[in-house]
Every structure is written in structure tokens, then in C-alpha cells.
Amino acid sequence: MTFRLANLVVAATTATTLGASLAQPAHAELLSLKALSTPIALSIAQTAYDSCLQQGYHVSVTVVGLEGQPLISLRGDSTSPHTIENSLRKAYTSRTFRIPSGEFAQRVKDNPTSGQVHLANVVAAQGALPIKTGDTVIGAVGVSGAPGGEKDEACAKAAIDKVSDQLK
To answer: Looking at the whole model, is its pTM more than 0.90?
Structure first.
């Protein structure tokens, strides 16, 4: 009985020591991340919307943040019901893959059996661009409702260009 108790004490001590050493890495640091502020996200959304509206396109716009979460969504007057969801999915796709959503659409066209197209909130459609600070993607803007994804994308580009000095 004494032998079993001694083994149990050694095992418990070893497990406690191992658990404590794994829980506290030697040089753990907090992450330092840049993220879109609400005023910048709002400026991007409004500029994309206005850019399309000036061309006669009724669109919806969504800006997503660092983790693909919606920050701002604008559903334009007289837009089709699907445009708000589509702008979100385009933006999410662009943020997820760190590329324009149109580039993702081309990848799917080149490889239609790609499993990525089946991920939730991913869509193979042009109209969204990643938002970057340097080479780091911190969000994306998606536009839906213009007659063609290239027109949606042009409005997204105009919006990013307007705030480019704030993204440094």
C-alpha cells in the first residue's frame, strides 16, 4: 500500500509541474495588432456607396474587420434584397483569403472542385478588396448591386484610395 501511495504522489507532482510549465511559456507576449477604427470603416463604406451612386448604381456595402466580423453595413435605397448579404460574403471572402474576391472567383473557375468555395460566408464573386496596412490585411470592403462585379470593385477601390493615408 505504501508503494502505491508513493507512486501516486510522484505522478501527481509530475503532472502538476508539467501542467504549470505548459501554462506559462517562458517569453509569452501579447499580440500587437492594427485594426480598423469605426470612423475609418464608416468612411470606407460611405465612399464606396457614394462612388457607385454617382454612377447611377444602387448598391449595398459591407466593411469587415480583422477577423472577418462586420463593422459597417449599408443597404442602399432601391437595392435588391440579396445585395446586403452578398456584399458581406464578398468582403468576408476577400478578408479570409487576403485577395480581391474576383481573384478568388477566378481560382474557383480554374479549379471548380476547390473545397474552399463550400466554406460558410465565402462567395466566388468579384466586388470586394482587402484593406491593408502595409502588407498586412486588416479587413475588407465588399460592394454588391452595380451591373457587374468590376463596377462593384471599382467603388471599393475608390473608397480604399480615399483613406489610404490613414492606413499607414
So the answer is: no
Average pLDDT score over the chain: 90
Residues contacting 132, CB < 8 A, separation 6+? 138, 167
Alpha-carbon torsion 55, 59, 64, 68, what sign?
Answer: negative
Helices (H) and strands (E) in the chain, counts: 5, 4
Closest-CA residue to 156 (of 45, 80, 57, 41): 45
Strand 60-64 relative to strand 136-144, pairing: antiparallel
79-95 pLDDT, tens digit per residue, is: 999 999 999 999 999 99
Tell me, what DSSP letter sits at residue 134? T
Q: Which residues of 1-36 are buried (b: 16+ CB within 10 A; e: fewer)?
A: eeeeeeeeeeeeeeeeeeeeeeeeeeeeeeeeeeeb
Q: How far is CA 55 from CA 46, 93, 127, 137, in A?
A: 14, 25, 16, 28
Q: Would residue 143 be called left, alpha or beta, if left means φ above 0 and alpha means ψ between -120 and 50 degrees?
A: beta
